[in-house]
């Protein structure tokens, strides 16, 4: 094993784990399943509440139907978010016991506080979703507010932990132990997480907005296009269309933060092999032998973007020894995918906003519905790609510069068995979720919609 | 009580609440599955499902609470036990996934066959999860989890007489708790026949759990002698006796159809067992590791205690509200009365179709770019983010109101 052991050490001592790669993949799979669901937990309640508010305000039954139907879908997705999150919590110990044993005292507080957010979210989502019929309208609307708020605080604390992993502080290492621990300082005085929080929070609205709108757009392509469907498409699409352009600006901020604190990650993002002044960016291409091949170069682009200066010096991968570098192509392709998709989504958003203000008729056209239908899955790809950038880009460290992933991993056997089992179970859950969403979309509701046939209005 | 023990107290309280509340949920799944066929069985199933629907998510968060406090306040102990006990913990996780997914899926099931297969999966998960979690606890209690990264045996740490005893007890207790709670709920809703049905189930499960508990000391004597000693002396013994009393008391109450107080004595019986275990094992957490040595640094402990107390101030009133509404029958699908009666003021459109919001949104967005991108300081970035927030909200006003689709014919 590497010399890192001797330098840093860890609370439970070194282990041999031949299945590190599977452990990482299992972690990645668990995240890839949890995070899209989280987006719905964060952003959907706000949409549902808005529609319910519209109903209270206008008295139009259509909104009531829409809000009730959405709230059923919301609670089903929430349940799956809860169980996938539970698996993640277990994995902190099952896959990375040494990470938790060494640093639990430093970052754990974030999750402990997050636990309370989950509690409140679960409590009020229960009250909201099951309280439609027997709570007063006001009380019902109010019960929804904490769900929106706790979606934010829950993300805040979990992202604070991730920010700490990327930019550890608030402790000192002595003989493999974290000493001088100041957990509040570690998590919340750390300024290197705000950009992640804002970016993730926007991503949640983008994903929820485009996915929900996308589903109705598919319905539109199949000929379901009444008043109900148009409303159900317009509201989430407006939210996503507004968030998407903002995301580009915020993403640029993320890039500058990474440039400042994690130069190696930045070098991997851009495939910058050697440290240089006036570094270029490349669009597309493949990193090999220290440079990007077949990419479209934009001279000085990186120096300008990352440091706002024509000739800024950008540290390349050669600044650290090879064993401290992340897998460049994975990170870089994920980054390019996110930025590419992010740009397309922002364009789609702007086009939609302008066209809507001008009341363009082509908003009803098929090609537009097709674009919206594609935006849903694309936004999911961007979301996962972004997390790949952050997490894989931090490799080989789990705590940047302090603990390697090889040191964090469990010594227990059987990871491939666990990984396979989890993959199969999640596959089954995924099939189940699709099935239930289709069902819920069709199920008639008590006091059903006034003018739209429930059976024909898919989700 | 020392500061370094306080978080452990929270953990134990959380564990007791999880055992009671989530236990009742797992048990309900078992009764749902065991109800059989026919219209009567259907009522039993629906009752079990609807009583738990609004509360199950909140109930399950107690486990998250236990895990997070444990790894924050006793990180080395957590890392050691999670790695050695990885198999049962993983199985428990899978059980919870299946149970939770079944909840999500059940609301969409249409035919009896679909319902039955979902209930079957859910029951399997609900046997697996409490058994595996309790078997893991049994491993800790019988001192089979040493300090270190997966330093204990991957299987015998949780497949041993003590673990099996605790695991079986956990399943029976879950079934018992569920039956007691569901009887009480049935009475509240005025379904006397359902109350009787669950009363019979409660008595059966309670007696079975009692029998296993009585056999317990024999197993512990042979397999986990230190635990046995702790439970037969001093405060450990007292807790054990209290639990026994509460258990017998619950059975009597159920027998006499006093279901509401039986809820609380049943919970007390469970809590006392957990307290007894803790007292018997004190002051060691894992073999060779005292609670004091396992505890995180002073600052962390203070932070955890503050966070939990502050969180509790918000949490407990909210939980009380949830349970009050749920027990009061306010969280059920009904005839839509409350929703309908104070009919909303009809058609008061919220249009404010002027160019103002659009222009303001544009201005905010420009300011946002300035503060977030051009400026470098942290405070400027904060303003930039807020400016964008304002831009999005204003933009929403500008776009949606004028021609919300619903306004079109
Ligand atoms: C819908 C999703 C989405 C979209 C459209 C974008 N991103 Fe993103 N991005 C994410 C979703 C995301 C994320 C939520 O997945 C990440 C992972 C970690 C984080 O904070 O947000 C992320 C991370 C992330 C990072 C790494 C931050 C770090 O490691 O600390 C950078 C540099 C960017 N993004 C940059 C951009 C740029 C320049 C975009 C636009 C053109 C963009 N992102 C669009
Ligand atoms: C708040 C905390 C965290 C967040 C938000 C987060 C997020 C993610 C995401 C989204 C991925 C990539 C998913 C994919 O590749 O499809 C990932 C991968 C990974 N995460 Fe994290 N993570 C967090 C904490 C952790 C922790 C605690 C560990 C444990 C040590 C960890 C280790 C890893 C590893 C090893 C991978 C796989 C990387 C690879 O495949 O090379 N992360 N994480
Ligand atoms: C190491 C990483 C993570 C862990 C250990 C984790 C853990 C959990 C747990 C235990 C739950 C279930 C809560 C419940 O029972 O109600 C959950 C749900 C949730 N998680 Fe995560 N999570 C992680 C990553 C993330 C990330 C990156 C976010 C994003 C912003 C996030 C936000 C949420 C939210 C909002 C919920 C509520 C459930 C929902 O709305 O679907 N989590 N998570």
Bound molecules: CIS-heme D hydroxychlorin gamma-spirolactone, protoporphyrin IX containing FE
Average pLDDT number of chain B: 83
* Order of neighbouring strands in the sheet with most strands of chain B: 1-2
Q: Total number of helical segments of chain B?
A: 16
Distance between the amino and carboxyl termini of chain B: 70 Å
Summarize the structure.
The complex is a heterodimer of chains A (459) and B (409). Chain A contains 14 helices and 10 strands.
Describe this structure in words.
- The complex is a heterodimer of chains A (459) and B (409).
- With 459 residues, chain A is mostly helical.
- Chain A is built from 14 helices and ten strands.
- In chain A, the strands form five sheets. A two-stranded antiparallel sheet of chain A has the order 1-2.
- In chain A, a hairpin with a 2-residue loop joins β1 and β2 (177-179).
- In chain A, α4 (97-130) packs antiparallel against α5 (137-166).
- The longest helix of chain A has 39 residues, at 20-58.
- Chain A is globular and about 65 Å long.
- Residues 1-7 and 446-459 of chain A have low confidence and may be disordered.
- Chain B is globular, with a radius of gyration of 26 Å.
- In chain B, β1 (284-286) and β2 form a beta hairpin.
- By secondary structure, chain B is mainly α.
- Helix content of chain B is 77%, strand content 1%.
- Chain B has a two-stranded antiparallel sheet.
- Chain B contains 16 helices and two strands.
- The longest helix of chain B has 32 residues, at 192-223.
- The chains are: A mainly alpha (459), B mainly alpha (409).
- At the A-B interface, α2, α3, α4, α5 and α7 of A face α3, α4, α5, α13 and α14 of B.
- One protoporphyrin IX containing FE binds at residues 24-25, 27-28, 31-32, 35, 92, 96, 99, 158, 161-162, 384, 387-388, 391-392, 395, 398, 405, 408 of chain A.
